[in-house]
Structures are given as structure tokens and as C-alpha cells.
């Protein structure tokens, strides 16, 4: 495995895992007051487009990282819409 691939995998893992504490906290407390609806809406669409991009260029790292991140971001967006 080459250095750029290792850096890409590490970056994808860290930026994806960064969402887990927010998802966990939001699921546990239902407190979404500190979460921007506009930011998460735009971010979720952006991640969906990154996922499509990963599929189009057949890049497994980009595809998997953005699939997981999209799932996590969609949970937060859904909770924000539900709990305001």
C-alpha cells in the first residue's frame, strides 16, 4: 500500500468517525438546539454528491467513507428536523 493511499484511508476514517459522538449525543438527549439546520442540510447534500463521485470514479475509499458519513449526517439531520 502506498503513502497517499494510507493518508487517504486515515483521513476518511477520522473524518467519518468524527460524526459518531454528535450522533450518539443527539440520539441520547434529543437536544438539537446547537445544530444548524442549514449547515446539516447543505452538508448532507454535499456528502451525497461525494458518494456519487466516488461511485463514478470507482474509488472504494471515497465511496465507503462518504456512504458511512452520509448515513451519520442523515441521522443528525433527521433528528434536527424532528426535534427542532
Reconstruct the topology from this structure.
Elements: H1 3-17, H2 20-29, H3 37-56, H4 60-83
Structure characterization notes:
By secondary structure, the protein is mainly alpha-helical. It has one domain: Monooxygenase (Up-down Bundle). It is 82% helix and 0% strand. The chain has four helices and no strands. The radius of gyration is 14 Å and the shape is elongated.
The shape is: elongated
Task: Give a short account of the largest sheet.
Answer: none
Query: What name does the CATH topology carry?
Result: Monooxygenase
User: What is the CATH C level class, in words?
Assistant: Mainly Alpha
- Share in β-strands: under 5%
- The percentage helix is over 70%
> Helices and strands: which structural class?
mainly alpha
CATH architecture: Up-down Bundle
Provide a count of the helices. Answer: 4
Low-confidence stretches: none
- How many separate domains? 1
Order of helices and strands: HHHH
The protein's oligomeric status is: single chain
Radius of gyration: 14 Å
Task: Give a short overview.
The chain is an all-alpha fold and 84 residues long.
List the keywords.
4 helices; elongated; 84 residues; Monooxygenase; mainly alpha
Amino acid at each position: 500500500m502506498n503513502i497517499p493511499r494510507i493518508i487517504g484511508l486515515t483521513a476518511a476514517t477520522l473524518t467519518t468517525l468524527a460524526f459518531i459522538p454528535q450522533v450518539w449525543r443527539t440520539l441520547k438527549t434529543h437536544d438539537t438546539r446547537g445544530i444548524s439546520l442549514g449547515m446539516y442540510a447543505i452538508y448532507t447534500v454535499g456528502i451525497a454528491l461525494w458518494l456519487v463521485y466516488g461511485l463514478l470514479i470507482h474509488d472504494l475509499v471515497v465511496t465507503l467513507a462518504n456512504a458511512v458519513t452520509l448515513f451519520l449526517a442523515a441521522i443528525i439531520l433527521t433528528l434536527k428536523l424532528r426535534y427542532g
